[in-house]
Amino acid sequence: MAKEQSFEALLERMLARVPNGLDKREGSIIYDALAPAAAEMAQMYMELALNTNLHFADTASGEYLDRCIAWLGIKRRAASKAELQGVFSNHKGEPQEVPIGSRFSLEMLNYTATQKLSPGVYRLECETAGAVGNRYFGPLLPVDYIADLAKGEITALLIPGEDAEDDETLRERYFDAARRPSTSGNKYHYMEWAQQISGVGGARVFPLWSGPKTVKVVIVDADKKPASQLLVAKVQEHIDPVPGKGEGQAPVGAVVTVAPAVGKNINIQAKVTLAAGYTLQAVNAEFAAVLEKYRKDKAFASTYISQSVIGALLLNTEGIVDYTELKLNNGTGNVPLDAEEVPLFGNVALGV
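== Baseplate J/gp47 family protein ==
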């Protein structure tokens, strides 16, 4: 609509309505009188087209997208807080207890102890929501004095924090729900239930996996890596805390087992030809970022990792002109993925 109602088209139509005997050339009184009106009308049509797009799920954005999809009960996921494992010890190197609610800092972030997992080992929650809480590992400083505490450090990421859901991810989730409705405890219902827990990045469902009325739900975390046992326990509690009793989301009689996905390590080696001015170190870092995006896209979405695609990713990496001797896990073919497996790229060895 906006293209058809451009400034030039509108002005041409307006000038066409003026008798030919009058001066309609650019700079004439009639031209100068009509041009501002044509410009304002063209702007109005552009805004009208934009506002029309805001009312359809495939083109809406922000608040308007939220409102377009609200009828299906789908809401944008808010940012969630990362949960990490903290290990504490005293001057003798023995496990040290810290009070629940104790606060610690690392870099620019603060963390709160929320649960004791074992002697000297605690679950910590980042006070800042979002993926930023996933980044830091290392020594912790107590915000307040804790007697006998000599050392504290973050050693593991238990449940990744997530940023607020972006428009494209929300739109994709909406279309998935519309095309594959979840109802009456079907497969998609179990996938929906699993992903209602913060930190779950995807789920795959296996009906009748161990006999009648059994269901297995395999999950990955927000980074599309095998979920931690803590995250698995949260999903199990949400879907089927007491097997078959219907005390969670699952219907009565359904015995649900929640398990983490299995990570399959894939090592990559190749010889590359570098463009002038590029170093192998810089190219390695760039290729690692490209691989990470590809890995996330393929989790639970592909049955293999393609060698030809990896080659294409190499060629699309800035600084790489060509490559030879590309191998995945020391082989020259694709790497298959089982139904419960997700790819994890291990050693990436690029040489020249």
